[in-house]
Design goal:
With 204 residues, the protein is mainly alpha-helical. It has helices at residues 7-14, 20-31, 33-38, 41-48, 52-61, 67-85, 95-114, 117-125, 137-152, 164-170, 175-182, and strands at residues 129-133, 157-160, 201-203. The protein has two domains: 7-114, Winged helix-like DNA-binding domain superfamily/Winged helix DNA-binding domain (Arc Repressor Mutant, subunit A, Orthogonal Bundle), CATH 1.10.10.10; 119-203, no CATH class. It is built from eleven helices and three strands.
Length: 204
């Protein structure tokens, strides 16, 4: 996920400032997050005992663009930390683990379909150097995995699976350098880039 606050934590923090009807939607989320993540606006409203408009207002009250955005963030929260939100019964066995993995894969498939994968591949393929930043269990593994895979294909790639070095590397960026890397079609003079960074550097 991004650096934005987890949606469940945000709902909890804003609960006191919500209207009574909006708090009913929040209560439904905490009672049955799976239902809200999959249901339509009308179904959520009927289950919570509020109007469709209230569900929309609730989504905006917790910093979501719309109800669809709210449901996406709830799905991410489930995929990232279901074991911290709901307790599994012993009779569930391995099914809980497989269900969580399946939901995570489905979410990532949706995100991949929305992403500009071809554009990202084109940028990486044309880069003189690729930097991968990852911190934390899953991110560290993925950063190293990308390095292992691309170095075998002849790409100049460096992975930074820790907290300090990425900060040191990022500290060499300038405002103009970041502007150029965000918009590869417009290349500024080489003098605007730190001498330690080659031109056409991609960052993952």
């Amino acid at each position: 996920m991004s650096q934005q606050i987890d949606i469940l934590s945000l709902i909890t923090a804003r609960l006191p400032s919500l209207r009574a009807a909006e708090r009913k939607v929040a209560g439904l989320i905490f009672d049955d997050i799976d239902f809200v993540a999959e249901a339509s606006i009308g179904q959520i409203a009927a289950r919570a005992g509020v109007s469709d408009a209230t569900v929309t207002r609730f989504a905006r009250a917790v910093a979501c663009r719309n109800v669809r955005d709210l449901k996406t963030r709830l799905t991410r929260a489930l995929a990232a930390g279901r074991r911290f939100i709901q307790e599994a019964n012993e009779e569930d066995g391995l099914g809980v683990i497989y269900d969580s993995a399946t939901q995570t894969l489905a979410l990532n498939r949706t995100l991949m379909e929305q992403a500009d994968v071809e554009g990202a591949v084109e940028m990486l393929d044309g880069a003189r150097q690729i930097l991968v930043f990852g911190a934390g269990g899953g991110s560290t593994v993925m950063a190293q995995e990308l390095q292992f895979r691309l170095v075998r294909l002849g790409y100049a790639i460096s992975a930074y699976p820790q907290a300090l070095l990425p900060r040191m590397v990022a500290a060499t960026w300038s405002r103009k350098t970041w502007w150029w890397r965000s918009r590869p079609a417009a290349t500024p003079p080489r003098s605007t880039m730190p001498p330690s960074w080659p031109a056409n550097t991609a960052h993952a």
